[in-house]
Design brief:
It is built from eleven helices and nine strands. The protein is an alpha/beta fold. It has two domains: 144 residues, Rossmann fold; 147 residues, Rossmann fold. Helix 1 crosses helix 11, helix 2 packs across helix 11 and helix 5 crosses helix 11. This is Aspartate carbamoyltransferase.
């Protein structure tokens, strides 16, 4: 059996192209499983996984939980807001207390970039990064790549534009790294104030005109404005942002070709994307949600089968 080159999934930057292809191919098999009448397999029976979320999450947390249940794993759910973290307990103490209960694998979301990397140097359990600050969100990038591959047959050679709040988006960075490793061309589009200073160093095209970006691409991944991460005002108003970078059906229908619309969620309807676009036949947003379960099943299965669990 082929194996991943890493013990953890901390970020796309740590994966090789072969790792990514292995995850996508394994996800193909699990996609078949979750569409059967009996959607469960015993692959991770007797494996205990802790979901540790220090930030709010709906889709990612539910997707991981469902993937774990489909694999027959035992699950512990931990929310920081109702834990001893609120009393001042450190991250390492919190996790070590959970590990003392004989947990094998940790799925963690944390508001600080690099939290998973830090933790991986201090504990023995395997760690899956479910989003760390504005740094990376590797399983989202993998499910996005899987969805493009499902739509077009291959990711290589496809032109993908990521539109919106690139500065604060962990989805953007992971997507850029993942798509480039699979041979896609990547462009980012949004206001200058929402572009990181290092963006051109990643080898992506930068465009500030939405219509030009959409006419260039095969796939448009629309990101929400992450107002909860704003420390200053990056544009005059939501209304003005929406006028410049919001995608509506009129713009979509006026393009030179038919493109595919994606969104990692949650959608702010009427801001970055209108309802008639989100619900159109060109949208694969719900397919992304379904594919997320299969991809996360693949990641946990491959990690658990590679190394002896503690």
């Amino acid at each position: 059996m082929q194996q991943l080159s890493n013990r953890h999934l901390l970020g796309i930057k740590d994966l090789t192209e072969n790792d990514i292809q292995l995850i996508l191919e394994t996800a193909d098999n699990f996609k078949e499983v979750i569409n059967r009448p009996i959607k469960k397999v015993p692959s991770l029976r007797d494996v205990t996984i802790a979901n540790i979320f220090f930030e709010n999450s709906t889709r990612t947390k539910l997707s991981f939980e469902l993937a774990q249940k489909r694999l027959s794993a035992d699950i512990i759910n931990f929310a920081a807001s109702s834990s001893s973290v609120s009393k001042g307990e450190t991250l390492i103490d919190t996790v070590n207390n959970i590990l003392a209960m004989k947990v094998d694998m940790i799925v963690m979301r944390h508001p600080y970039a690099g939290a998973g990397i830090f933790l991986s140097k201090h504990i023995n359990a395997q760690i899956i990064n479910a989003g760390d600050g504005a740094h990376e969100h590797p399983t989202q990038a993998l499910l996005d790549a899987f969805s493009i591959r499902q739509k077009y047959g291959d990711v290589a050679g496809k032109k993908v534009v990521i539109v919106g709040d690139i500065l604060h988006s962990r989805v953007a960075l992971s997507n850029i790294l993942c798509l480039q490793k699979l041979g896609a061309e990547v462009m980012v589009c949004g206001p200058t104030t929402l572009m990181p200073r290092y963006i051109k160093e990643l080898g992506v095209k930068v465009e500030h005109n939405l219509r030009k970006a959409l006419n260039w691409c095969d796939v448009a991944n629309m990101l929400r404005i992450q107002l909860e991460r704003f420390e200053i005002k990056y544009f005059p108003s939501i209304r003005e942002y929406s006028m410049m970078y919001g995608l509506n059906k009129q713009i979509l229908d006026s393009l030179d070709k038919e493109i595919t619309i994606m969104h990692p969620g949650p959608i702010n309807r009427g801001v970055e994307i209108t309802s008639d676009v989100a619900d159109s036949k060109q949208s694969i947003i719900l397919e992304q949600v379904e594919n997320g379960v299969a991809v996360r099943m693949a990641v946990m299965y491959l990690l658990a089968s590679q190394y002896p669990l503690v």
